[in-house]
């Protein structure tokens, strides 16, 4: 975060105020350390572990919604540090969800997050940072295929 802060002083991502910075670090860490790991289990786990992961993932997304409610972005009126961290999770696992034909994240379950996601997807600068959708889908399909093959070999052994 310090690198970003020092490099782009004219357009800071983390808040200037120490309390806001601490809050942004907390939520970015929550997304990175908790939500990302739980999403992996929810989408890729098996049996009871996956069931538990789905429940916890849903709870974590509800926590993110509560933090976002009433704001355009996690930091307020403009895209910030937490938005970038959370967008990565929502975008990547949105593609995984499409490939796996799962419905863990839906507009009906998480309307606030999906409204926020739509704002980010409408931003040309954000979208320029992403690889083309078809290429991303192909990559995820290939990665999931490798994981499925490895699981089948482990199960057969």
Automatic annotation (TrEMBL):
EC number: 2.5.1.18
MF (Gene Ontology): glutathione transferase activity
SUPFAM superfamilies for the chain: GST C-terminal domain-like (SSF47616)
Catalytic activity, reaction form: RX + glutathione = an S-substituted glutathione + a halide anion + H(+)
Domain GST C-terminal: from-to ranges: 17-144
Enzyme class: transferase
GO cellular component, one term: cytoplasm
Keywords: Transferase
GO terms (BP aspect): glutathione metabolic process
The UniProt record lists the keyword Membrane: no
PANTHER family: GLUTATHIONE S-TRANSFERASE U8, GLUTATHIONE S-TRANSFERASE, GST, SUPERFAMILY, GST DOMAIN CONTAINING
Listed name of the protein: glutathione transferase
Lineage, highest ranks first: Eukaryota, Viridiplantae, Streptophyta, Embryophyta, Tracheophyta
């Amino acid at each position: 975060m310090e690198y970003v802060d020092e490099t782009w002083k004219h357009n800071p991502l983390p808040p200037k105020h120490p309390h806001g910075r601490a809050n942004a670090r907390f939520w970015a860490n929550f997304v990175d350390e908790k939500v990302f790991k739980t999403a992996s289990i929810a989408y890729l786990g098996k049996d009871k572990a996956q069931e538990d992961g789905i429940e916890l993932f849903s709870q974590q997304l509800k926590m993110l919604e509560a933090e976002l409610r009433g704001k355009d972005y996690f930091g307020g009126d403009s895209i910030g540090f937490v938005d970038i961290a959370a967008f990565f999770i929502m975008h990547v696992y949105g593609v995984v969800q499409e490939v796996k034909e799962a419905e863990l994240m839906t507009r009906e379950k998480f309307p606030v997050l999906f409204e926020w996601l739509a704002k980010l997807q409408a931003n040309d600068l954000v979208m320029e940072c992403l690889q083309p959708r078809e290429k991303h889908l192909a990559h995820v399909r290939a990665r999931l295929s490798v994981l499925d093959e490895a699981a089948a070999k482990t199960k057969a052994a």
